[in-house]
Amino acid sequence: MRLKNKIAVVTGGSRGIGQAISELFAKEGATVIIVDLLPQGQKVADDINANGGKAEFHSVSVTDKMAIESLFAATNEKHGSLDILVNNAGITRDRTLEKMSEDEWDAVIDVNLKGVFLCTQAAAPYMKANKYGRIVSAASNVGLRGNFGQTNYAATKAGVIAMSKTWTMELGKHGITANAIAPGFTMTDMVDKIPQEHFAAIKESIPLKTVAQPIDIAYGYLYLASDEARFVSGICLTIDGGTSR
Predict the structure, then answer these.
(1) CATH number belonging to the domain at 7-237, selected among 3.40.50.460, 3.30.830.10, 3.40.50.720, 3.30.470.20
(2) Which of 3, 183, 235, 237 has a CA positioned 20 to 30 A from the CA of residue 160?
(3) Which of 126, 132, 153, 221 is catalytic?
């Protein structure tokens, strides 16, 4: 087991890529702390426990500084460490530049960027105390190349990459790595909403001619969270079938 006895917090762990990460990490021996506002997170945790893994669900917003700090403190006290933080929670509010409202901008920045900042800031002291930590945050290939109608989303994902590189410099001496993962189109609820004709064009544009499944992305998180990646820090691992070649 590659994550045996590790304590892993996964934000947005109730569905899609986050669910795949939660289930895979539990299978690899981690105790998974699922942090999400979606109630199905409880079922994900229950299913993991029923299948012999270890998981907890906590309905907490990543934008609530006090609640996050309280949860992380309780997690460290209960389990004795906080080894892995997966900053996966994210939202979209797509609209072109001239039509995007300030509320749509603020909502995406608040969850996708500020939420990652708050969670990492809260986790860092426990990782420093244990001289060990793995921080893996959700970027996107959109953060590398932009995307029509996603000014807010692209800005947050580029910011996640930059923050990860900064944390590498600030936290590395404490045995903590910080990396980002940039998925391409992945079969999640977001992609399910795309009209079929547009989906066909997207699929054709990917060199591998297929769309990722959540587990394809989860394996990237597993690698960066494991001791196999102990000397990997400050990178953005792109998993998009060659789209960002």
Answers:
(1) 3.40.50.720
(2) 3
(3) 153
